[in-house]
C-alpha cells in the first residue's frame, strides 16, 4: 500500500509562501461574500489538470481577472479573447467560458435565494456525491474533484485542516 498523501496542512508548512498564505488565510474559511465565493470557485476550476502551485502563483491575477459575479456575468467574446491573452491567468478557453457561465448561474441563484452564500448554506449537510450532483446540475466544469476542493476550501465540507493544525482552531 502506498504511503498516505500528506495533508495540505503539513504540505503547506513545508512549501512556499503562497501555499502557507493560502492555507493560513483562505483554506477552510468561509468566504466573506458571493464575490469571494465566486473567485474561489474560479480558482478551483483554474486548477483542474494543473499543479495547485502553478495556480497559487497566479492567484492574484486570477482574482483580478474575475473580480465579481456582476462584472464577469457581463463578459462577452472580446473579454474571452482578452483573458486568453493574459499571461497572469490560466489561459484555457473552456475554463474561462465556465467562469462566465457560472457567474450568470450564480446571479440566477442570487435572485432565488438572496445570495450564493445563502444557497450553499441552505443545502444542509450533503454528501460529496449529492454536492457533485447539485453542482453538475447548476454549473460548468465542476466535476467531483473541483466540487470537493471548492467545498472543503470554503468550509462546507470537513477536512480542510488537520486536528492539530493551528489554523483549525481559528476556523
Describe the structure.
- The longest helix is centred in the middle third of the chain and has 21 residues, at 93-113.
- 63% of the residues lie in helices and 0% in strands.
- It is globular and about 45 Å long.
- It has helices spanning 8-13, 17-25, 34-47, 52-57, 59-65, 69-73, 77-84, 93-113, 116-121, 128-138, 144-153, 166-170.
- Helix 3 (34-47) packs antiparallel against helix 8 and helix 3 (34-47) packs across helix 11.
- The chain is mainly alpha-helical.
H/E element order: HHHHHHHHHHHH
Query: How many individual domains?
Result: 1
Report the CATH architecture: Orthogonal Bundle
Q: Let me know the number of strands.
A: 0
C-alpha Rg (nearest Å): 16 Å
CATH topology: Endonuclease III, domain 1
Key terms:
globular; 12 helices; 171 residues; mainly alpha
Q: What is shown here, in short?
A:
The protein is mainly α and 171 residues long. The protein is built from 12 helices and no strands. Helix 3 packs antiparallel against helix 8 (93-113) and helix 3 (34-47) crosses helix 11 (144-153).
Question: How is the topology of this model organized?
Answer:
Blueprint: H1 8-13, H2 17-25, H3 34-47, H4 52-57, H5 59-65, H6 69-73, H7 77-84, H8 93-113, H9 116-121, H10 128-138, H11 144-153, H12 166-170
